[in-house]
Design a protein that fits this description.
This protein is of the alpha+beta class. The chain is built from 13 helices and eight strands. The strands form two sheets. The chain has a five-stranded antiparallel sheet, sandwiched between helices. The structure holds 6-diazenyl-5-OXO-L-norleucine.
Length: about 300
């Protein structure tokens, strides 16, 4: 499906070189102190396609903190485990608020707007904590299976840093518990959530691990069913409307692909029936999305003619 690998590799390198003047337009996050230690000049892009090819450039084989990108995998695990019951406890609408906002959650009686804002991901973490005897291990093993790579690891330094600066997430979880929408004990939910956010992966591993969402729920390489076609559709729909938080409208308008960002600077975009693009650059814009990662995606999508709205 990548017709000319050498040509795409050359394109990626040219696009990466073009981003260098954008470093100063973003700020590396520091509310999780360990993430502020990452070199702001790291930059990568990788394209993986459903025929099993992949092409990367820059630091695409260097592991970074996947952070909120983990919410996509948690959502799939929770959908597989409890099915439609999930949608009694979390909504599927854009929030129009920052990813870690608490205001809306009180108005809406502890039901998060969607599963990819922090409140929604904590709800999903509660589902996983309550339904798996060892949810953190199950999560890590799911990631390793999807990426076909047993070396994927939890970065304990990032985990400890999140745990000691996690008061806002704790507030979201306790507020939901006060409305009866959290089953497990809050420290267990937070521990699961911070663990999944602290997983370190490369652009290449992330792009590979999400191929099932570009292939109606089936891992195109192993042919293993990861989720139903209906759930793959639903996850892609949520990523299209909410994956880039309050920048999702602009992202759909200018790029047109289901996508998810993380405060580690990673961005993944699903191209149905084609593959997955993953970009990485740590400086973030005011929405918490990678400045260069988003711009690189825009450039690549345009260059390759990729959009779900064509
Ligand atoms: O809970 C948090 O705030 C972080 N562990 C994850 C947030 C995040 O990645 C938002 N994405 N851009």
């Amino acid at each position: 499906m990548i017709k000319d690998i050498a040509n795409l590799h050359a394109k990626l390198q040219i696009l990466l070189a073009r981003q260098k003047n954008l470093y100063n337009q973003g700020r590396v996050t520091n509310y999780i102190p360990a993430l502020a230690e990452v070199c702001p000049k790291k930059m990568a892009a990788c394209v993986a396609t459903i025929d099993g090819s992949s092409v990367g450039a820059g630091d695409y084989q260097e592991a970074f903190s996947i952070q909120s990108i983990s919410k996509v995998f948690g959502l799939v695990m929770a959908m597989n485990r409890i099915g439609d019951d999930l949608w009694q406890r979390v909504n599927m609408e854009p929030s129009g608020q920052p990813f870690n906002s608490i205001i809306q959650l009180e108005w809406e009686k502890g039901i998060p707007r969607n599963p990819v804002i922090n409140a929604g991901a904590l709800l999903v973490a509660d589902v996983l904590t309550s339904h798996f005897s060892a949810s953190k291990l199950a999560f890590l093993s799911f990631m390793r299976t999807l990426a076909h790579d047993d070396t994927i690891f939890i970065d304990n330094h990032v985990y400890q840093s999140e745990l000691s600066h996690g008061n806002r997430n704790a507030a979201l979880a306790y507020l939901m518990k006060s409305f009866g929408n959290i089953e497990s004990e809050i420290p267990d939910v937070l521990s699961h959530y911070f663990t999944q956010c602290s997983i370190a992966m490369t652009c290449e591993q992330l792009a590979t691990s999400l191929l099932f969402l570009a292939n109606k729920g089936v891992d195109p390489i192993t042919k293993k069913v990861i989720c139903t076609p209906r759930d793959a559709h639903r996850v892609n729909a949520i990523l299209s409307t909410s994956g880039m938080y309050d920048q999702s409208g602009e992202f759909a308008f200018s790029i047109g692909l289901p996508a998810k960002s993380g405060v580690g600077g990673g961005v993944v975009a699903i191209v149905p029936n084609y593959g997955v693009i993953c970009t990485w650059s740590p400086p973030l814009n005011s929405f918490g999305n990678s400045v260069i990662g988003t711009n690189l995606l825009a450039n690549l999508a345009e260059e390759l003619g990729l959009s779900i709205y064509h």
